[in-house]
Design a protein that fits this description.
Layout (H helix, E strand, L loop, with lengths): L9 E2 L18 E2 L28 E6 L4 E7 L12 E8 L1 H22 L6 H4 L4
Antiparallel strand pairs: 1-2, 3-4, 4-5
Length: about 130
């Protein structure tokens, strides 16, 4: 049974009183079909509990993946300017599916674009940022 609060558009049958004095029975109503795919809806409000959060710092990131997941290893490189082999201690590993990784990519991209618009382009090559004495 379809009610007037449904998302589908309803049209009164020909000859029906526009003031609604004649009842429109469900079998006499013409409804516009809904699209096969629902349109995306805004996510519900999410409450974040960060009472037990452990913060970390990383200047190193290694990305690897499998067909099912993407893996981010985060750590601290104590010698970012040393061209020789350096042992990096990985302190955090984030594992996510590729859908979440794509949403993360979008969020990070938008955040970095806003930052660069406000503060200038970020140079990712450490050697170019270091001033020689």
């Amino acid at each position: 049974m379809t009610s007037k609060s449904d998302d589908a558009a309803t049209i009164a049958p020909i000859g029906a009183d526009p003031n609604g004095s004649q009842p429109v029975l469900p079998e006499n109503r013409i409804t516009k079909p809904r699209p096969a795919v629902d349109e995306p809806r805004a996510p519900a409000a999410i409450e974040v509990d960060d009472a037990n959060i452990v913060a970390g710092y990383a200047n190193f990131c290694r990305v690897s993946s499998t067909p099912e997941e993407l893996i981010l290893d985060l750590g601290l490189n104590p010698q970012p300017l040393n061209p020789q082999t350096t042992k990096v201690h990985v302190s955090q590993r984030i594992i996510m599916n590729h859908f979440t990784a794509k949403r993360l990519l979008t969020a990070l991209s938008m955040t970095l674009q806003r930052h660069e618009a406000a503060f200038g382009v970020l140079e990712t090559d450490v050697r170019r940022r270091v001033r020689s004495s």
